[in-house]
Amino acid sequence: MNWASFGAFLKSVFIPLVTVATATMVAFLNSSISQVDHELKQRIAAVDIAIKEARDEREKIDAEREFNFKIYDLVQQSLEEKNERKQEVAKQFVLVMVDGELRRRLLGVLEEGGTPTIKQEAANIIVQEKEFQRDENSNLRINRSVKPSFDWEDWDYDIFWCTSSGTHAKEQANFIKQELEREGAKGRIRVRELYPSVNSRTGYKVSGYAIRRSENETTQANALEKLAETVLSEKGYPAVFKQQLTSQNTRWYISAFICL
Fold this sequence. Notes:
- It comes from Pseudoalteromonas aurantia 208.
- This is SPOR domain-containing protein.
- The protein has 260 residues and is α/β, with parallel strands linked by helices.
- Helix content is 64%, strand content 12%.
- Strand 1 (156-162), helix 5 and strand 2 (189-194) form a beta-alpha-beta unit.
């Protein structure tokens, strides 16, 4: 064997080749490790976010539960003391801060054990809210299989007026209803009173002139807005309605509010 030639081969070919191969392998490994490290960091970040969201949700639920217990204690204490002023305060807390089944139960407790005045007020609120909810449930129309074209006749409208706004608001609501009927609307058109106890609930809290619609009801809402503003202006009530999105699933139904 010609050792001189072999040595030259190692020096000029083999060693540089091994060096290049090693460098390539190191670069590849570094790239792979970097990619794995990036993916690992992303997964860790996603887990951290999920943990934080779960913790936030748990803390929110715990806070709501603790708050509801405090409201319940407030109601019970006012009844035990037979203190009408405290019962009135408790009632207002329930109306403004509590929703759902707990709201109904606490109002029922006040109706059952309150002073005569509080009993009557709680009973009236329960009746009003049951009536309002019954009307709301009737908005879910399921007897249509074909989506209607844009036509007043094919839609239902509720024109609400806030109790706190008085007879002028009711009068304006009636003007809008009458104009819809005059233009040939044949659907269900109602003027409805929005009681303070209902308007204090989550999902309402309406003020001013408003039209509530779903995302795909812009054209119909614009038509109602134009009609309402025109007729009220002619009657001496310059009104500007603001459209608001609603999450309620009420097809072919739009509501307007007059809460001044």
